[in-house]
Design goal:
The complex is a heterodimer. Chain A is mainly beta. Chain A contains 2 helices and 9 strands, in the order E-H-E-H-E-E-E-E-E-E-E. In chain A, a hairpin with a 4-residue loop joins strand 4 and strand 5. The longest helix of chain A is centred in the N-terminal third of the chain and has 11 residues. The two termini of chain A are 22 Å apart. By secondary structure, chain B is an alpha/beta fold. Chain B has a single domain, classed as 3-Layer(aba) Sandwich (Rossmann fold). Helices cover 46% and strands 14% of the residues of chain B. Chain B is built from 9 helices and 7 strands; from the N terminus they run βαβαβαβαβαβαααβα. The chains are: A mainly beta, B alpha/beta. At the A-B interface, strand 8 and strand 9 of A face loops of B.
């Protein structure tokens, strides 16, 4: 993955629009957040291989970036995206890596299901 | 303490690196004594957060990296039989409880271990650790008392000593310290930052704390019917 280049990422988001796609969306503080700091309220969400179809996908310019997908009946968005790549299997992988290199959020889009 | 000869050892942990942090030295000592060791590793740590910045992996490439690290780590520990159980990181507690117990029961039936290493329920911090430990303890509890293997539980919740007192099983692993370090280093995607910090401290003349590197601590997990018996025999 490399740091977000807005124009390139926007083109990739466009390329998945109006197709049935599988998504992986994940936010996390890490399972040990409360172990290391009792004041942390640990919350996160994870969805993998949900099938969606979006009509408009957009990455917003200022970093860390926000990526939103507008669907016929709803929305998907991710905040804090810093890195992206189109992997060797044609999947668009986006992630938000914090200052220590730990993943805080991931949003991935693929025309084929992700592994289990 | 001096380790007794065991018939067969079984490790049950959910993530590649749990075994290295918990019992790498003890397992190496047993392997050196000729005890066969099987490690059932439930997931590939697919949800590990450390991808680096700049990143060395993606969410999708991490599992294969960790699979290779796991293989190198078990080699350093002298484990010949590695089972990757195919569950997904952070979902273990949501699996069917009976399916989890059966998975452990099947391993026990096949291998007939005399000693099992896993986490200590209630003091294992990570939900996957807790779910793994619950399944192991329940599988063993269902066995006839005289056939049960011992379970050595790893506990590291912040309130462990406060609630349970100091660990009763302390294994001196100083003679296999280098193998333990090798196992930890094998999990580079998880431990590189820690190993770098350790190297720095060693260079500065402050080696990693003796207690952490040289002694591995466990609590014997006892079932209710066993505790009752020991109370009864003590009162006789």
């Amino acid at each position: 993955m490399k740091e977000v280049e807005v124009k390139e990422l926007q083109e990739l988001l466009n390329s998945f629009a109006n197709k049935d796609v599988y998504i992986h969306l994940e936010t996390t503080n890490g399972a040990y957040a409360t172990h290391f700091n009792e004041n942390v309220f640990n919350a996160g969400a994870f969805i993998r291989n949900a099938r969606i179809r979006y009509e408009l996908g957009k990455v917003v310019g200022d970093a860390p970036h926000r990526v939103g997908l507008k669907m016929e009946h709803g929305w998907v968005y991710a905040q804090g995206i810093t890195h992206f790549e189109l992997d060797e299997r044609g999947r668009l992988l986006m992630a938000g890596l914090d200052y220590t290199g730990k993943l805080a959020i991931a949003l991935e889009i693929s025309e084929t299901p992700f592994s289990y | 303490m001096i380790l007794e000869q065991e018939r067969q050892i079984l490790l049950v942990f959910p993530h590649p690196d749990d075994e290295a942090f918990s019992c790498a030295g003890s397992v190496r000592l047993y392997a050196n004594m000729g005890v066969p060791v099987t490690y059932a590793c439930l997931t590939l740590g697919e949800m590990g957060r450390n991808l680096g910045n700049p990143p060395f992996a993606t969410r999708e490439s991490l599992p294969e990296i960790r699979r290779a690290e796991l293989k190198a780590a078990v080699e350093a520990m002298g484990i010949k039989d590695l089972r990757m159980m195919g569950l997904r990181d952070k979902t273990v507690e949501f699996e069917d409880d009976e399916k989890m117990v059966k998975m452990v029961s099947d391993l026990i039936e096949e291998l007939n271990p005399s000693l099992i290493f896993t986490f200590f329920p209630g003091f294992a911090v990570h939900p996957d650790h807790e779910a793994t430990a619950r399944a192991v303890v329940e599988a063993v509890r269902r066995m006839p008392k005289e056939q049960r293997p011992k379970i050595w539980g790893v506990a590291f919740a912040n309130d462990t000593v406060e609630k349970m007192g100091e660990a009763t099983i302390n294994v001196d692993v100083s003679t296999v310290k280098l193998d333990k370090l090798k196992a930890l280093q094998a999990h580079a995607s998880q431990t590189a930052w820690m190993m770098a910090e350790t190297t720095k401290r060693v260079e500065e003349g402050q080696p990693m704390s003796e207690s952490w590197l040289n002694v591995e601590k466990f609590y014997l997990i006892q079932h209710e019917d066993e505790i009752d018996q020991s109370i009864n025999s003590a009162s006789l």
